[in-house]
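Lecture notes, unit on protein representations.

Consider one protein chain, 337 amino acids long.
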Amino acid sequence: NLSEGDIPVEIWSLASLEYLNLAGNDFLSLPSGLSHLSKLDNLCVDGCRSLQSIPELPPNLGTLDAKYCTSLEKLSFPSNYKRLPVLYLPNCNSLAEIQGLENLNYVRIIHMESCSILANNLKDSFLKGQSELYKSSIYLPKKEIPDWFSYRRMGSSISFDMPLHMVDDQFLGMTLWVVYAAVEDRDEWFVPPSVAICDRTNRVDWAYKPTTTHIQVTREEHSFLIHIPKSYFGYPLKGGERMDAWINIEEPFEVKKCGIHLAFKPDITGGDQGQSSSVNTDGRDELMDIMHPKRGRDISVVETSCDLSKKDKFPKRLRMEPDQTKDLNTELDRLKK
C-alpha cells in the first residue's frame, strides 16, 4: 500500500535494475525517474487500482504487467523506444491512450481485454502495420472483423487463395482475426487459440501457436488478432495456392467468426496481387485430419497429401499449454494415434 512519497528515490539510480515489482500499491502516478532505468526489462504494477498514469516507460522495457489498473488512463512510450513490447493490460477499463504506440514499428503481444476505450481509439493503420520477420498477437474487445479483411466467414474455418503471379519478396505474411466468446463466465484463464493451416496446392500443412499467456473466460465477445510473418511459412509461395485455415480453441470458448488478410509491402497495388473473395469451407474435422507436424516450434511444416476425404476423425480440440510449444508435434502425433 505504498504511495508516491513512499518509493525510495534511490531506486531510480539503479542503472542495472532489470525487474521492478510495484504491484498492489496505491500511488496515483509513477515518478518521472522511471524513465532513467535504462536496463529495466520488466515492470509489474498489477492491481494498482489508483494508478492514473505512467508518464514515460523506460527505453528498453520489454514487458509491462498492468492488469486490473482500473484507474489507468494514459501511458507513454519514449521516442527512442526500439523494443518489441509485450503489454498486459486486461481490465484497464479507463485506459484511453498509449502515447507513442502507433509510432512503434511492431509489437509482440498486447492484451487489452475489456479495454473498450483504448480498443476503439486504435487506428487501422496500427493493426495493419506488420512485419515479414516478427509475429504479433493482440487481444481486444471487438465483435466485428474490419472491412479490410478480404476473407471473412462465420465459424472456425475458412479457405482462401493466394494471389496469382505473386512476387514472394513483396509478401509480408498473413493476419488472422478471430472473434470468440465463452459460453459462461468463469474466474478462470485458458490457453489462447491455435491455428492449423493447409496449403492444398503444395501439399504442405502446419500449425501455428501463439506464445502468449492465458485468456480470461468471459461471455463478452473479444477478438484475437495474430500476424504470421512470411519467415514462419518455411517455404516459398509462387501464387495461386489454395489455403485452408482452422482455428482451435479450448472449451468453454467458441469461435464466432474469423477472417484472413494477406499483407504485402506498400508498393504492391492492384492486379493479381489483390485478394479474391472468401470461399466457405465445411468439414473442420477433415482439415485437422491432415496435420502431420515433424519438428517442434511455433510452426511445424511437413509435406502431406492434403487429402480432405480421409474419414479417420481428429479430435476437435488440442490441449497445448503455452510453455509447451516445443512439444507441439508430439501432442499432435499422440492425438492422431
